[in-house]
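Tutorial sheet, problem 5. The three components below are modelled jointly, 186 residues in total.
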Amino acid sequence: MLDPAAHSTEVAQQLLGATLHGPAGAGRIVETEAYGGSEDPASHAARGPTRRSEIMFGPPGRLYVYLIYGMHHCANVVTGPEGDGQAVLIRALEPVGDTTAMESLRPVRRRRDLTNGPGKLCAALGIDRTHNDVDLADPMSPVWVEERPEAPADEQIVTATRIGLSVAVDTPWRWYLRDSEWVSAR
DNA sequence: GTCAAGATTAGT
DNA sequence: CTAATCTTGACG
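Model answer (structure tokens):
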């Protein structure tokens, strides 16, 4: 069962198979990355709370959204004990249900480009910084996480290094579902 | 105040 | 491989 108060490395794996709901649609989580607090140099929380990262230091189970490269939003689940600064980045989704709204919000050539990346999935689901700090456990929230009906088999879960970093490049804190067509990178 | 870098993406 | 685009956080 999903326990946001657990360490981000555990929650990252618990989130695989869960469904992320946003204003414009929903998708099954197929790829995640864990970020730690002060012990993780790649984390926004590495140097203590700042105006951007303060949400990471708040209660677990809330949404942390940030803008990267001036144009893409990334969605994270705050995890761990309050004050620690951990979070899990949602990197890829398999679309669930009607994708009409998602596709009109973010037109793509290939269908797989709709949600196979952290910036892409936010654009498709309509998630941005206005959703910062929402309670992900509440189905009434504009953005929330529906717990998975059952855990994926162990052999379906692949452990890998995180993407796009310039530090801590060897830390194997990325997880994805082996058979998913929607994973952002192998 | 100034400035380099960034948990990305689409296009050449 | 590179441009796009702008916020953040470090430094002074």
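Marking note: The longest helix of chain A spans residues 118-125. Full credit if you identified this.
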